[in-house]
């Protein structure tokens, strides 16, 4: 296995000369170290079956099962399916997931440390994932913004991103919202988190899931959120990855925000995600 590091200040190491079906425990350790250092690793020319893909994830850590079953692959619940492709005339997974800045499972007490994506069908026009390195964002923050987050906790809510399922037919929006709220109540995490291994700090906010800083009034939060997200999401902070067939991406969800591209022509698009718990807490407490 060969590791090609990114240039200074960039994320994403490319790993070549490795078949993901034949990864040893030693390889897995090096892959994890590379993720902690470069936040994103890219494998090219891979074609594992779903079983082999899950087996690889198990070498990296503990695959997660997503909390909503409508996202699951029918045979493999560990696979979170983002797809608009009918299979045997049936809908599988959910289309158009994650097209907003976020970090996976931020609205849970135990967010996902690592995330892996394996596209199955790539639209011709574009299939991209955009990333923002929140360790760099934290380091570059002006004092005015730092004051909002340093020593504060942020409120995380998943309910606004809930996607209507076939089971919701005939239900009132208020009742759907109440049920979702019960399943994923608002929680808080530190607005700045410290990496459990490297100790590097990162800003832990996303416009997708973060609805405020604890202790601020509604008006104060509106102003704070607008300023923080304008700073975070500026063009200079965004790194784009365009998928080629055979690519598999694996990244550290502690340090990166991500967002999926849109699909302007509505072309067939399908990918398998696996969320992975490593052996470390999500952040130092
Ligand atoms: O459909 C989606 O955009 C999925 C989102 C609500 N959750 C992804 C996650 O793991 O946090
Ligand atoms: Fe995501």
Automatic annotation (TrEMBL):
<keyword id="KW-0223">Dioxygenase</keyword>
<keyword id="KW-0479">Metal-binding</keyword>
<feature type="domain" description="TauD/TfdA-like">
    <location>
        <begin position="6"/>
        <end position="262"/>
    </location>
</feature>
<dbReference type="InterPro" id="IPR042098">
    <property type="entry name" value="TauD-like_sf"/>
</dbReference>
<keyword id="KW-0408">Iron</keyword>
<dbReference type="Pfam" id="PF02668">
    <property type="entry name" value="TauD"/>
</dbReference>
<protein>
    <submittedName>
        <fullName>Taurine catabolism dioxygenase TauD/TfdA</fullName>
    </submittedName>
</protein>
<dbReference type="InterPro" id="IPR003819">
    <property type="entry name" value="TauD/TfdA-like"/>
</dbReference>
<dbReference type="InterPro" id="IPR051178">
    <property type="entry name" value="TfdA_dioxygenase"/>
</dbReference>
<comment type="similarity">
    <text>Belongs to the TfdA dioxygenase family.</text>
</comment>
<dbReference type="GO" id="GO:0046872">
    <property type="term" value="F:metal ion binding"/>
</dbReference>
<dbReference type="GO" id="GO:0016706">
    <property type="term" value="F:2-oxoglutarate-dependent dioxygenase activity"/>
</dbReference>
<keyword id="KW-0560">Oxidoreductase</keyword>
